[in-house]
Structure formats: structure tokens, C-alpha cells
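Ligand: Phenylacetyl coenzyme A. Inputs:
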Amino acid sequence: MAAVTAHQTTQKTLGTANAAGGAGSTAAAGETDAPAADHLAAFDAAVAADERIEPRDWMPDAYRATLIRQMAQHAHSEIIGMQPEANWITRAPSLRRKAILMAKVQDEAGHGLYLYSAAETLGTSREELLDKLHAGRQRYSSIFNYPTLTWADVGAIGWLVDGAAITNQVPLCRCSYGPYARAMVRICKEESFHQRQGYELLLALSRGTEAQHAMAQDAVNRWWWPSLMMFGPPDDASSHSEQSMAWKIKRHSNDELRRRFVDICVPQAEALGLELPDPDIRWNEELGGHDFGAIDWSEFQEVLKGNGPCNDQRISQRRRAHEEGAWVRDAAAAYAAKHAPAQTSPRTPASASASAQTSASAQHVEETA
Ligand code: FAQ
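Predicted complex:
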């Protein structure tokens, strides 16, 4: 991928940066070109110096839009990602396993909360983002469109899906946008715990009876390739990577992270006594990493188009959960309105409570990072 500086790329997008009238243009609204150029220079200098861009800082609209797209997709993945594992809560094989799984699924809801709150600092609302998810206008990770057929799938998700998520997300702790980077610090700590529980679960099955070992191997066979697809399309087909890396939202390309993940998994699979379903994995001395087989990108594209095994089920379950949770949101909003301090400017109770929730959530992200 050609090296591009933040300055070169933001210059390309400046034409739209303040023309769209989005939240990103507020600081520069009505100003002449000279101050706008100053804002851009300050933004580029901050990115170049590895400083954090904060919600009140000026930023190009395209930077803001890219962050909203990625953070929304990430938040949606966390809450849709609760479904495949929740499928096994009632059938966990022991009280201990059930308690662990419930805690993990609750953690995913918490990750969604941090990420929606962080996205709200960009001038969007959680309601708007959820509406877009339910209308199919924003994505969630391809991985959650696969079914969890056996108990071993819970282990495979922890080991491989959380493992891939950590590989992708640790560099996001250094993302140029402060609230996203800070939210990722806590999320990565929890994902690391999730990955270990999956590994430990698979180890128990792998060392168990012949049937348990076979169940673990079957789960790994089914989750391996979709886990590699989580990192996104190959670099030459990745539409956003070049710009996102120039802005230091992403720190590594999709292929770099995918390769890193394979290198991490190969020795772990050996320790587990399980095989990765790829006969082409072998050490490449020159690269100092593993080569691996070709990924079926047509399957990835089909899942993105909505034709994966569980796309319809996931989105209809999400819409149903949202509708059935309406009374909880109404009750929370009524409670917040009742307990909100008196406002100096006239506002409707609904907007007052929404804004109270937003600022409380944003503060939560700041404090917990
Ligand atoms: N699935 O140009 P790029 C988790 C889309 S959290 C669906 O390379 P980008 C925790 C992409 O949006 C898992 N769509 O895109 C957990 C774009 O579409 P557009 C989620 C995908 O953004 C564990 C197009 O393809 N993690 O697992 C996928 O630069 C267990 C072109 O792609 C994150 O979201 C995909 N896999 O790079 C929860 C991490 N890949 O907008 C429960 C943050 C690509 O042009 C249980 N996100 N697309 O229509 C990222 O790091 C990036 O957004 C990438 C994609 C790397 C995912």
C-alpha cells in the first residue's frame, strides 16, 4: 500500500469536509478559508504528532464519518455478537460454565454501551445508529452470521473470534480519536479474559472423551475461515484502509493483522491438540511468519450481502429485542427526566433526558478508560 500522509489525504477530503454541513463543520462554520486551513493544519499536525483528537476539536467531516461508520459497525457487532453465544446459556453443561458464559455475554453488551457512547461524542445518537442497523444501513461483523451448533462452538468463539477481535483491537487503543481509543483499553482487557475462557473450554474438550475431542475439532473446522475473514477484505480490495491508516484510526492493514493472528494461533492449536483446517499453513523463514491457504472471499461477500447462514435470524432477533425493550427505555427516560436538575433553557423532557444520558455515557467512557 502506498504511503500517504494524513495531510495529503485530508487535503483530498477538505472539499467535502466543511461543505456537507455536518457536525464536523461547526467549529469552522461561517468562517473564511484561511481559518479553515488553520484548522486542517492543526488537525494534521496533531495526527502526525500522535496526539489524540478529542470531541471538541475541529476535524474533517470525512474523518468524523469514517469514525462513525467503524465505531457503529463495531458497537453493532458487540450486541449482535451476544446472540450466538446466548443460544447456549440454557444448555451450558455445568453451573460454572453457565455463570462464565452469562458474564461474557453481559460483557459484550457493556462493550456495545461503551462504543455507542463513544460514537455519540461525534454528534450522532445511539437511537439513530440502532435505527440504521435495524434498517440494514449499517453493518455488523460477518462472523456473527454463522450458527453455534454445539457447545464446543462457545469455546471456538472465545479462542478464535475473541482472539481475532483482540488482534484487531489492541492497535485501536492507539487510535487517533480519544474516546474510541480509551474505550478500547477496557474492552481489550475483557476480550483477553474471554479469549482465555474459550481456550480453556476447548482444552477441556480436547483432553476429554473421543467424542468431546471430535466436537472441539469440528467447531474449530467451522470457525477458522470465518475468523480470518473478520479482518476484512485483502488489502488490495480494502476501500477504507489507506485513508484510515493515514488518519491513524487504523494502525495496520487488514492483511498484516490477519497474518499476525495466524502466527498466534498455530502454536496455540498445537498446545490444544487440535488442527487448523488448512493444509497450506507452513512456516515461511524469509517472512518470519506463516503462509496459509487462500480464503474464499466469495463466501465473505455473500455474507456481507445478507446471504450468510444466519443473517435473517440475527437481524430479526435484534429488531424484536429492541421492540420488546421499548418499555425499559421509556421507563429509564421518564426516571431521568424526573430526576434531571432544573434546566435554565426551555427544553422538552425527552430531549433533556436524552442529552443527560449522552453526557453521562460520554463521561463514563472517559472515566473508565
Ligand atoms: N464484516 O475497507 P475495509 C467482536 C466491510 S467485535 C462485515 O477494509 P475497514 C467482539 C467494511 O465495513 C468484531 N463487514 O473496511 C465479540 C466496508 O464496508 P463499507 C468487530 C466488513 O473499516 C467477540 C468494506 O467491507 N470488530 O468480535 C468486515 O477499513 C465475541 C470494505 O472493508 C470491529 O468492528 C467484516 N468482517 O476495515 C463480540 C473492529 N470487514 O462501509 C461477541 C473495528 C470489512 O465500505 C462475541 N473495525 N467489512 O460498505 C475495524 O477494525 C475495521 O472496520 C475492519 C474493516 C478491519 C473490520
